[in-house]
Amino acid sequence: MLVSVNNKFFTFRIWAVSQALHAICMGIKMIITLLAEYTASKVKVYIDDAFAFVLYKGELRRYGLREQMPINDKTYQEILREVLPKRARLRCMNLLKSRDYTRAQLRLKLKQGFYPEETIEEALDYVASFGYVDDFRYAGEFIRCSHSHKSRRRIENDLLNKGISADIIAKAWTEWEDDGNEQDEEEQIRKLLQKRKYDAEEADAKEKQRTYAFLARRGFDADKIRKALGN
To answer: Model-level pTM?
Structure first.
């Protein structure tokens, strides 16, 4: 039985090498040099020793792709132009079913899935064209939901960390304020101090220093903090 298995493997290797040599002779240079299992259902495909893309095992079977075999340009282009873009668009749509994402957050998700850069941008443009992803709208909604319990600086930092540009954040603030809204950071500080049971008359220098640092980490203005602490 072992001899039979070894013979089959040896026969396959000879066939694979012959296919690769034939491809080289025909001017086809793209050879699948490695198929590395990525998950139970996905495989990383390396072409000419360089990572190319991730395919499902079913897609490998459908295209008849194996290690040391050539991949013709038609198949390669079909994967890049049809298979991966369709999958990336669906990935974005499925993510957006549960909650909003910024463009940068979606880009990161697709990068984690090893999609090519061109495929990522095409998928992001696709969902943006339908208004499914909109950084300006995201920033405005974030401000609306956070203004009563977060400082302006904290909100801006959070949005920057989510990949939204400073320019879009500034425009979102302006629109929110133009609608008649106003943030009361002094009231936020008062509630936080009340929650911490802070007493300006009884607090010593050490406690005031700790409380100041606590509020500063939350992005509150230094003058507002000192005023609230009774300094």
So the answer is: 0.78
